[in-house]
Design a protein that fits this description.
The complex is a heterodimer of chains A (468) and B (571).
Chain A (H helix, E strand, L loop, with lengths): L1 H7 L19 H9 L4 E5 L9 E7 L6 E2 L4 E6 L4 E5 L4 E6 L6 E3 L3 E6 L5 H19 L20 H7 L10 H10 L17 H7 L42 H13 L4 E9 L1 H10 L6 H15 L21 E3 L1 E3 L2 E3 L2 E2 L7 H16 L5 H4 L4 E5 L18 E14 L5 E14 L5 H16 L7
Parallel strand pairs in A: 10-14, 14-15
Antiparallel strand pairs in A: 1-8, 2-4, 2-7, 3-6, 4-5, 6-8, 9-16, 10-13, 11-12, 15-16
Helix pairs in contact in A: 5-6, 9-10, 9-12
Chain B lengths: L1 H6 L3 H10 L5 H11 L1 H6 L14 H10 L21 E6 L3 H12 L4 E5 L5 H6 L1 H18 L1 H7 L10 H26 L2 E4 L2 E5 L2 E4 L3 E10 L3 E3 L12 E3 H4 L8 E5 L3 H12 L3 E6 L10 H12 L4 E5 L1 E7 L7 E7 L5 E7 L1 E4 L3 E3 L25 E3 L5 E7 L10 H15 L13 E3 L4 E6 L2 H11 L4 E6 L4 H5 L6 E6 L6 E8 L2 H14 L3 H4 L11 H9 L17
Parallel strand pairs in B: 1-2, 1-6, 2-3, 6-18, 8-15, 9-10, 9-15, 10-11
Antiparallel strand pairs in B: 4-5, 5-6, 7-16, 12-13, 13-14, 17-18, 19-20, 20-23, 21-22, 22-23
Classes of the chains: A alpha+beta (468), B alpha/beta (571).
Amino acid sequence: MASLLQSRVPSFSSSSGIQWRPSAVFSSIPRRRIFTVQAKIREIFMPALSSTMTEGKIVSWIKSEGDVLSKGESVVVVESDKADMDVETFYDGILAAIVVGEGEVAPVGAPIGLLAETENEIAEAKAKAKAKSAGSSSQSAPPPAASPPPPPPPAVAAAPPPPAAKVADGPTKIVATPYAKKLAKQHKVDINSLVGTGNFGRITPADIEAAAGIPPKKSAPVASVTTVAAAAAPKASATTFPEIPGSTVVPFTTMQSAVSKNMVESLSVPTFRVGYPVATDALDALYEKVKPKGVTMTALLAKAAAMALAQHPVVNSTCKDGKSFTYNSSINIAVAVAINGGLITPVLQDADKLDLYLLSQKWKELVEKARAKQLQPHEYNSGTFTLSNLGMFGVDKFDAILPPGQGAIMAVGASKPTVVADADGFFSVKSKMLVNVTADHRIIYGADLAAFLQTFSKIVENPESLTM
Amino acid sequence: MQSSLSLSLSSSSSIVTRSDRKVLQGNTFFAGKCSITPRSLRFCGLRSEVYGLQYSNSARLVAASLNRRHLKKVSAALSDNGTPSKFDYDLVIIGAGVGGHGAALHAVEKGLKTAIIEGDVIGGTCVNRGCVPSKALLAVSGRMRELQNEHHMKAFGLQVAAAGYDRQAVSDHANNLASKIRSNLTNSLKALGVDILTGAGTVVGPQKVKYGTDNVITARDIIIATGSVPFVPKGIEVDGKTVITSDHALKLEFVPDWIAIVGSGYIGLEFSDVYTALGSEVTFVEALDQLMPGFDPEIGKLAQRVLINPRKIDYHTGVFASKITPAKDGKPVTIELIDAKTKEPKGTLEVDAALIATGRAPYTSGLGLENINVETQRGFVPVDERMRVIDTNGKSVPHLYCIGDANGKMMLAHAASAQGISVVEQVCGKDHVLNHSSIPAACFTHPEISMVGLTEPQAREKAEKEGFEVSVAKTSFKANTKALAENEGEGLAKLIYRPDNGEILGVHIFGLHAADLIHEASNAIAMGTRIQDLKFAVHAHPTLSEVLDELFKSAKVKADVSSPVGEPVAA
């Protein structure tokens, strides 16, 4: 034990008893700490003065560099979230260097000053302090930040600033939000070296965290229209992917964020899928007939689905709390529409009650509004059942993700001529499309869905009822 | 005029003597008034820029025209509503805010036939656009704060999933509360038989009031209680969407990512509490050199440490917002700052929204004061310590009183109500002067701030002038069992007193439920109770009230108990 210590710390014999007191404790943890403490230069840490304190501000240094300190003496006054408090030293020595100056802020546990045992070590301590303050942002960052390529270390600010400085002709041109400024100060990030990604090019707290190499914390109380109790966002962000040089990062638009959020949320619902081939010859014939009157295939399918839903209310229901069925009073068919870079689901309300022509007209209005981004919330989030059609692209079958808050979604493929054998063994060619429904198995079971699809298929195969 | 005085009831004699009494000269009166009220003025964020404002009376006109259809009396007088005289009413109150309501209630109790004139909605600022809806928002922000404070929740052993909110539902809560309180107020007036006359009220002559377009009524006494509107300094363009006043903010139509709050008085402070809890970042713009002017410096420092520093708030002090342009054409709200003293430009802020909380301006234009030779001072109706309106000759106008924000003595709802009650007492022939130093004030942040009486610097100044000693006692919420049980040990109570006779000069509290705790101190000041006697009062254990118990007990008073503790009356 002693020899081990001696071999690592040559100056052991000369050091005072107080200094090495921890070595008397026979536990591996303090012992290891001793090994890592180099020679006789100690760090003075930002203490945790209260249970809620996460950072402290140096009000004033009572001692200055070069002062001789004895154990128990007050060295520095720290302002915590609660009060100003004197901080004492636990060791004798010389205050070799002040790492965090007066008025600056450091997180709890970060070194704020260095204590040398003898005058000889002061120079060494000073050099160390310099290194510290240069790289202190990465130092103070949580441990994992070390291994992956630390993205843009703020220390290498040499390259980015010139353009930034040029853009900013006045000293006030760089706009950072209040919290971003606070974070920048705390993590010693040079705001002038950053390019803001927020509104109007603002530097946001996220920008600072990115620059300081801190994994983004769960954003504070973000909320607007989202009443849905977000089931504690899965910690997907924990894994970091290697960055491929030259890639561009494009932040989500609001619509894309909403899609992303809904998709992640959908993972919490147990779903299953049932497919069904539907003959469409009769439907196609009807479509040709009503097309001149402005009826679209979307309207036809929505109407058919709505009529089938009217007979199978469970497929139109919702499971809100995992404990009950919520039977929706109206049948509102949401139809997925791709809109330049986004996805939105305008809703045909009371699709079972409106006639085909009104429905087509309504649909036309909704699509126009969606393109102009003028849909009102109730026009895109009141759906009770979703219809998604990729048939026009030649997709024969696909599988849809159930949007949160609905019981089922129908994915419609292209209608294709298919050779079929009838009961008597005669072959014929009929147009068939594959319909695939994804449903919430907490409320909708296989037989329910099968029965619903059967009804839907009957309606499509005998579409006269659609026009009534 | 004189004849009417001599004809009126027994109370008239006292009124005559009062009007005969020599009234202070106009200018000395104002000098005196300023020295009495600076705390309240600064507390309300009203500063020197109030000079030379122009009020738009469009709101009043619009309200009047809207209400013209309903000019009929809302309620019929009940049989017990006073005795008829040669006047239509014994008392007419212009303005049905909290002040007017308080006065009306007390007047009916005293048997006066009373009418109240309102050109807008019953309840005034407090109920519709002030204290009441803001408390609803603050109730939400307090809970949000708690739920977001993981550390706090963990300390209780509670686990809470991410807290979120629905803006519309929060906003509805505030609106519903306002309309509920409004209907309570209206019903209480109707139930007592107070006539509610709809339309803007104007004084057309002595003891004569016009309401609506052409309804003229006479009253033995008139109280002006028209209140105030948000004060918007010039250069600031309020569009009601991105540049707003408290009137708009209380509707919570949107929660901006970043909002600048101009003025860090209690209105600004409360809104910063709401907005930061809902996820906004806040920048304060304060014209004075420090935030939270008007609070006791020690309380202010602690409040800043708890309410400002750890939150997503930064601030610019010593600067004026000289020009604020609302967001438009895809550009953010821009705020041009100038140094408050040198007027030099101090840069520009670009934010998502700006809330103007620079105080409130009296709402007194169109009152017809010129008909009775009264001139407003910076919009405020000049009054003496009995709320009697003073005319341009420095004489008090008989039978005309002004209470509440319109007189600017102390711009607080409960102060207006107290002034109203004081006036009714006088009208009924009982001299009464309201002691303003016993009126408490509160700021409903989390935690709350409350105060009554003088701040420490004010007390020391007064002590030096009058030659007495001042002592200060302090207790912390950290030592209070109930506060610790709630994990809310953050807080301070401060007592400023005279050690020679035990008089309470001021009490300031920052901590959990401070607004509810202050009343023990304010009642003591109002009743003239001395600390040495208060020490013997018993407080239930464990309650937050023990913070004050401790405070009184820690005071070192040289005087003996003034009166022996009373014997129990009933066994």
